[in-house]
Design goal:
Length: 264
């Protein structure tokens, strides 16, 4: 297993890769160090990762980029472009990851924070959670893939309305739109997100990775191509150790042991 002992923003415990994506300083803004370390961990740890947990440090999940740093940069365009490129390296690694991505979304998820929520497979919010694109408020355009993910979640027309109006979405509306998965008490967000990440980390990992690969291929496949991909994928799953354990457990009327199957 690759060591991540030198990565202060990343931990791996019981298969859960925990990545701190914002810093408590500067209004819980996006953490460039967390992005770099997260991308490195995702690219090197491989099968050691059973699930990925995105968390913020401080009062919010992530309130966006560090606008004060933008203002003080000698060349704002070059500085902001480099921030976006670093962020996008992490976004690409997160999107390509075979393990499920869980976000524990407490407080605000604005700008880049909302982009990461839209990218997560499961996003747990609190009763006080709020989301906002935030880019128009400073005269910017989206990054982190929001212009790609948001229309696929809420539809093109609703995405245009949310982005152009810089809409503030409460937790209930975000759940209704499918941006957040569900809400829990504000003081339960981190605990529930971690519980779910641990459950997924001990689940049928090859099934999860196969599902995510099929969802990625569906972005460009025709229905006929996707049917071929599904047939090939389910055949591989049936012959794999996790698929065998799942079927055998069903027939034998017992609980499947996917952890042992992964180690076989």
């Amino acid at each position: 297993m690759t060591s991540i002992d030198d990565l202060s923003k990343v931990t791996l415990d019981e298969g859960v890769l925990r990545i701190t994506i914002s810093t408590a300083a500067n209004g819980t803004s996006l953490d460039g160090e967390g992005m770099e370390q997260g991308a490195r961990a995702l690219e090197t740890l491989g099968n050691d990762v059973g699930s990925i947990l995105l968390v913020g440090e401080g009062a919010n999940f992530c309130a966006g980029g560090n606008v004060r740093a933008f203002a003080s940069a000698p060349d704002r365009g070059e500085y902001v472009g480099q921030v976006a490129r670093t962020f996008h390296t992490f976004v690409r690694a997160l999107d390509a990851a075979p393990a499920p991505v869980v976000a524990g979304v407490h407080g605000w998820a604005a700008g880049a924070g909302m982009s990461l929520v839209c990218l997560a497979d499961v996003a747990i919010g609190g009763t006080s959670t709020k989301l906002r694109p935030a880019y128009p408020s400073i005269g910017f355009t989206p990054d982190g893939g929001m212009s790609w993910t948001l229309p696929r979640i809420v539809g093109a027309a609703r995405a245009r309305e949310i982005l152009l109006n810089d809409s503030v979405l409460g937790g209930d509306e975000a759940v209704r739109l499918g941006i957040l998965t569900r809400l829990v008490g504000d003081d339960e967000v981190q605990e529930e997100a971690l519980r779910l990440a641990r459950t997924l980390a001990h689940g049928p990992s090859s099934s999860y990775s196969g599902i995510k690969e099929l969802l990625r291929s569906s972005r460009t496949n025709t229905l006929s191509e996707q049917l071929d991909a599904e047939a090939a994928s389910i055949a591989r799953a049936a012959n794999g150790p996790i698929g065998r354990e799942g079927v055998d457990a069903f027939v034998e009327k017992r609980r499947p042991d996917f952890v042992a199957a992964k180690q076989a």
